[in-house]
Amino acid sequence: MTIAGLAPGRQGGVPRCLLALFAVAVLLVLLGGVAPPAARAAEPQVDVQRELAAIRALMQQSQDAYRAGDAETALRLARQAYLDHFELVEIPLRVIDPNFTLEMEYRFAEWRNQIEAGAPAAEVDVTVQELERGLDEVEALFEGPGLVAPTLVTVASFSILFREGIEVILVLAAILGYIQTQNPRLRRPLWWGAGLAVPASVLTWFVLNWVLRVAPIGREVIEALVSLFAVALMFYISFWLLRRLDVRRWMEFLRAKVWDAVAVGNTGAVAALGFVSVYREGAETALFYQALLLIAQRLELWVLLGIGLAILALSVIGWAIIALGARLPLRAFLGIAVAVIMLLSVGLLGNAVWELQQIGVIPMTLLDDSFPRFNRFLADLLGLHATLETVVAQSVLLLVYLAAWLYAFWWQPGGAGTWRRQGTGAR
């Protein structure tokens, strides 16, 4: 995709710079991915996977007995889960994370105390759910992130900020191009408005994070709602952008959004336009990163790596388009970013369905052992849970995306030809 008519200039070697930047990112990810996790240093002498599976089975049996009114059997099974199995896991776990080990001990103790005190079954269920989450974290600690999960997290993090940032650059470039010919003095208020939107977007992320922590509902419900809202927004954005990968449609959209506000000539109106143009994308970005962090626990550094690389890439592209007037093949970049965001939304949907199953909102149909077992980090990131409901939901969304992609680039009149011409920079 080429952005023509924004400003005169020459066509530089920016795409090569971006390719080099991407190569550096891949190298960093590969080097980080092959580094041995802390769990390997512990060299556990126990079969952690087998012990965790035994604990989960005993937890389920204990819950069944407690709901049936047999508190004595439930307590015996709860003690057996801890004494006969988790204490074996504790030996190597203390080497990796002693604080987390102590926290898990408290969770097991609370579970037993609730059974002894005859607490309501719903209250005990909440504690068991927390224990399940803890066991998932234990499993992840011993497996390590491997290579694929950090790579996917970095790419997803990069794509979120890159896609939103490209739209901001295009809008600001269109406004600046018009201001330059009509009223150059309005450039400064435009930049002031756009600049204020950046800290406002960061503040939005902190506010959203605070609201999620203090909300008077369960953690599973919060995570499911955030994920579902992010999926809906990603779904809308992906289809919106697919309809505007054509240069003419992009420019028509930008002109309709810009001309009226700039024509007023009011400094405050132009500053507000700059603020809204950036903050709209910033608020979406805050929500997307909140959802990404929910499924990328213990991979936060890779999220930051993706953000850093996206900032570098956007700085180069913004400078090339706004300052030099370079014509870049943005269609190809945006197409890749949209594809990654689509896949991320599929993973978020799987995790949202899984969270709702954990609290009993959606029925759970477990798949047999033929369902492949994935690395815990990868399973959480892609939402790959062994239930029929998660697989069906993800498959339906993936098929919808595939149909839309094929229509946009192959079935729509001129789609494939337009893609090839504009993807290589031709007009």
From TrEMBL:
A Gene Ontology term for the protein's cellular component: high-affinity iron permease complex
InterPro entries from the UniProt entry: FTR1/Fip1/EfeU (IPR004923)
Membrane spanning residue stretches: 160-179, 191-212, 224-242, 258-279, 299-325, 332-354, 391-411
Family, similarity comment: Belongs to the oxidase-dependent Fe transporter (OFeT) (TC 9.A.10.1) family.
Pfam families given in the database record: FTR1
Keyword annotations: Membrane, Transmembrane, Transmembrane helix
Cross-referenced PANTHER family: IRON TRANSPORTER FTH1, PLASMA MEMBRANE IRON PERMEASE
Protein localization: Membrane
Annotated membrane topology: Multi-pass membrane protein
One Gene Ontology term of the molecular function aspect: ferrous iron transmembrane transporter activity
Organism: Thermalbibacter longus
Protein name: FTR1 family protein
Main location: membrane
